[in-house]
Amino acid sequence: MDADILKSLDPFSSKVAEKKIHLRTQQRNGKKCITTVQGLDDDLDIKRIAKAMRKQFNCNGTIEEHEQYGEIIQLQGDQRDNVIEWLIEQEILTKQEAEDRIVKHG
Predict the structure, then answer these.
(1) For position 55, what pLDDT does the model report?
(2) Model pLDDT, residue 5
(3) 23: confidence class by pLDDT, cuts 50, 70, 90
(4) Alpha helical stretches, state H, 1-106
(5) Domain range spanning residue 40?
(6) Radius of gyration (Cα) for the chain, nearest Å?
């Protein structure tokens, strides 16, 4: 019985060690840039999320398939702050999860 309690308090369990969500901007030419969103959970419908983000942010975007990192959403412009707010509004992440899991580069 005590072993079950210790397992539930394990700091290295999958709940604590969830993968990070990386938000990056990449400079294109001049003032133009793209935002990449990498590391969203596998059980989410990435295509629907990308479509909703494009509509909400009034920008274009695509989904790139990467061998190592999986599906990566690319959006036109610097949308890093908008993506964080949108993920919280849509209840994909809680505010606390967003602080813990999202890494904003650049």
Answers:
(1) 97
(2) 47
(3) very high
(4) 2-8, 46-57, 80-89, 95-101
(5) 21-104
(6) 16
For the sheet with 70-76, list strands across it.
61-66, 70-76, 33-38, 21-27, 102-104
Q: Assess if residue 13 is contained within a domain.
A: no
Any domain includes 70: yes
Q: What are phi and psi of 87, to 5 degrees?
A: -60, -35
Distances (CA, A) of 72 to 2, 12, 33, 61: 42, 26, 16, 11
Mean of the pLDDT values across residues 23-47?
94
Report the pLDDT value the prediction gives residue 19, as an integer from 0 to 100.
Answer: 87
Q: Is 48 helix (H, G, I), strand (E, B) or coil?
A: helix
* Per-residue CA distances from 10 to 13, 19, 94, 101 (Å): 6, 17, 22, 19
Q: Are 4 and 38 in contact (CB under 8 A)?
A: no
- What is the spatial distance between Cα 10 and Cα 16, in angstroms, rounded to a whole number? 9
Task: Please count the structural domains in the chain.
Answer: 1
Is 1 contained in some domain? no
